[in-house]
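Why do we care about 3D structure at all? Because function follows from shape, and shape follows, mostly, from sequence. That is the central idea of this module. The next example makes it concrete: a single protein chain, its amino acid sequence, and then its structure expressed as tokens.
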Amino acid sequence: MTPVKHVLVVANRTAATPALLAAVRARAEASPCRFYLVVPATPKGLHRLVDPEDSGKDVAARNLELALPLLSDAAGSPVEGHVGDASPLSAIEDAVHQQPVDEILISTLPARVSRWLHIDLVSKARASGLPVTHVEAPAPVTAAA
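And the structure:
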């Protein structure tokens, strides 16, 4: 029997995009997996400086709520998740320490607009020693207006 892999999915504005859903579906079809979504509470604009720990949680919670049923459908099994730290790297580190993780799947906006790619999140996540797959979503779907 093939062991179940635990895949940590990290996304915010791209958590419900077709590109991420397709990546989850393909990964689930390749071998048995359990997926867990963490949505960093990424603050926007001046909130990054003024109140980074308090801002962004409402939007992240809405994105999480929107994405979980879609990801569950793509995975073929229930996907759980939570709103993580404002720092996406800290959100990853926290999730890796809180539950079993065999690999990480990071979904970002396109390179020209992705703050996560500008801070080199994918490479930094690879420093965990876990395999990391990057999915670039062409069009974000968010709960935010």
